[in-house]
């Protein structure tokens, strides 16, 4: 790999003789790692565990993820190992349910991870400012099966108006991408000294924009996938001096070979691929100073918006819908433009505030769509961890049938399958719904999620 000349000069000055080991590591194959969704996949894959993540595993080879039905069902997520490290922060500092914001969340690796490691009963708000990427985020969150979650598409400045709302804000801020050179050639092509300065300034603006939304005493987790100090230690020192942020330590195992600060003396954590199995990553944890006046209460407006008035119980027997959910009494039903949603009761006030201030792409559990006197069950429902799969007749299908379903092709059900809505599973993991008409069935898999490639590798390797 031919590294940019300026990157070599700057980084060799930072690391000294150690730079040669880094450069050599960047010529090695990229490690492949996944994180399991323990609510859907209960086995242990071939490979060794990621030391700092309970559900993370290194794979001995790359799977054919596009043609693995379990991947599409949300049984696991393909995630770079070093970026699983925030799990340690949550486990060490968060002991009770919280309201958490993942600010720069697409495509969803950290959000799906946060959802698993936050204390049960927490609410996660996952935001992405780029519209096209926000829909990918919403798709991945739906596949993961989240219920106590909201996906938004907003600028950090708009979110910053939600004063004192979040107990935790996770900011995997846009960076110069030095830690992704081995994995993504484009990041190396776009790298420059000027871009490093631009990214460092943008990162400071982003943190300033959302700082008011963090509760006094709340935690902000700052991370990048780059090596330089401008975007890392220097920014952390800036937040410490300008915002009064307390930089907190994280307990680590020396065997993980995580590198500490390269300047200043704040507790920060940097992953180098010549020391740890993964890509480049940097993390710091900051606590916002306490407010002597205490947290400010939520301010929910009395909205006169007609769309908000649609948030009423569906015009069908409630028991028909509540039979689809586990613990239905803990959810509030909402009808949004004939799309039925169940949202966690304990966070309804937060949800109302988010609806007033932000652009919401998804929230809670999408149950189905009202069509006349019928309710078409939502694909999101089939994948959700709150779904009572016994509410629908079920047919377990083969790998070939599963791939046809994921391509949104016609599926022929066995003769014993009843007419109406039928849940398809693969290896007993829900894939989605079809409507069985007897001589044929309608494939209800979302068209925008379908497998688009017509190419099928000669050898397919699945989990």
Fold and architecture overview:
The chain contains 14 helices and 21 strands. By secondary structure, the protein is an alpha+beta fold. The longest helix is centred in the middle third of the chain and has 18 residues, at 193-210.
| Unreliable parts | 304-316
**What separation lies between the terminal Cα atoms?**
31 Å
Q: How many strand units? A: 21
Provide mean pLDDT, rounded: 93
Radius of gyration: 23 Å
Structural class: alpha+beta
Report on the biggest sheet. 9 strands, mixed
Helix count from the secondary structure assignment: 14
Q: Helix content range of the residues, please?
A: 25-40%
Overall shape: it is globular
* Percentage of residues in DSSP E strands: 15-25%
List the topology elements.
Blueprint: H1 5-15, H2 18-25, E1 32-36, E2 48-49, E3 56-59, H3 69-72, E4 76-78, H4 86-93, E5 99-102, H5 109-117, E6 123-127, H6 131-144, E7 149-152, H7 156-159, E8 166-172, H8 185-189, H9 193-210, E9 214-224, H10 233-243, E10 246-248, E11 269-271, E12 281-287, H11 318-322, E13 331-336, E14 339-344, H12 348-357, E15 360-363, E16 365-371, E17 374-377, H13 379-383, E18 394-396, H14 399-406, E19 420-426, E20 429-436, E21 441-443
Parallel strand pairs: 5-6, 5-8, 6-7, 8-9, 18-19
Antiparallel strand pairs: 1-3, 1-4, 2-3, 7-15, 9-12, 10-12, 11-12, 13-14, 14-16, 16-17, 19-20, 20-21
Helix pairs in contact: 4-5, 9-10
Structure at a glance:
With 463 residues, the chain is an alpha+beta fold. 26% of the residues lie in helices and 23% in strands.
Which keywords apply here?
about 475 residues, alpha+beta, nine-stranded mixed sheet, four-stranded antiparallel sheet, 21 strands, about 25% helix, globular
């Amino acid at each position: 790999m031919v590294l940019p000349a300026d990157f070599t000069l700057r980084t060799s000055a930072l690391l000294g003789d150690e730079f040669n080991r880094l450069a050599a590591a960047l010529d090695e194959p990229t490690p492949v790692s996944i994180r399991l969704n323990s609510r859907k996949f209960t086995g242990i894959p071939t490979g060794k565990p990621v030391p700092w993540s309970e559900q993370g595993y290194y794979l001995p080879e790359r799977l054919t993820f596009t043609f693995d039905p379990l991947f599409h069902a949300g049984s696991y997520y393909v995630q770079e190992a070093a970026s699983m490290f925030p799990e340690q922060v949550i486990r060490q500092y968060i002991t009770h349910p919280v309201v958490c914001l993942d600010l720069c969340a697409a495509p969803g690796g950290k959000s799906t991870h946060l959802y698993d490691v936050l204390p049960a009963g927490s609410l996660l708000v996952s935001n992405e400012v780029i519209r096209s990427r926000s829909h990918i985020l919403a798709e991945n969150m739906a596949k993961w099966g989240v219920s106590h979650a909201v996906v938004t598409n907003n600028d950090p400045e708009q979110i910053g108006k939600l004063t004192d709302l979040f107990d935790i804000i996770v900011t995997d801020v846009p960076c110069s991408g030095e830690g992704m050179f081995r994995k993504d050639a484009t990041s190396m092509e776009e790298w420059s000294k000027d871009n490093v300065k631009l990214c460092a300034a943008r990162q400071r603006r982003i943190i300033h924009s959302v700082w008011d939304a963090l509760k006094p005493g709340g935690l902000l987790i700052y991370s990048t996938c780059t090596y330089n100090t401008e975007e890392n230690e220097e920014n952390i020192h800036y937040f410490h001096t300008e915002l009064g942020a307390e930089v907190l330590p994280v307990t680590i195992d020396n065997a993980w070979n995580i590198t500490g600060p390269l300047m200043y003396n704040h507790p920060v954590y940097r992953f180098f691929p010549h020391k740890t199995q993964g890509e480049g990553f940097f993390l710091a944890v900051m606590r916002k100073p306490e407010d002597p006046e205490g947290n400010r209460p939520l301010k929910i407006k009395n909205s006169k918006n007609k769309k908000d008035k649609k948030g009423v119980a569906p015009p069908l027997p409630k028991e028909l819908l509540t039979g689809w959910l586990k613990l239905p009494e803990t959810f509030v039903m909402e009808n949004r433009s004939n799309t039925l949603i169940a949202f966690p009761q304990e966070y309804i006030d937060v949800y109302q505030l988010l609806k007033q201030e932000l652009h919401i792409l998804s929230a809670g559990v999408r149950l189905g769509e009202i069509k006349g006197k019928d309710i078409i069950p939502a694909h999101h429902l089939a994948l959700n961890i709150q779904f009572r799969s016994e509410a629908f007749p079920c047919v377990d299908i083969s790998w070939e049938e599963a791939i046809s379903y994921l391509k949104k092709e016609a599926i022929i059900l066995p003769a014993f399958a009843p007419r109406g809505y039928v849940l398809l599973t693969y290896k007993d993991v829900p894939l989605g719904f079809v409507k069985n008409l007897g001589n044929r069935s309608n494939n209800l898999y979302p068209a925008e999620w379908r497998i688009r490639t017509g190419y099928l590798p000669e050898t397919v390797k699945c989990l």
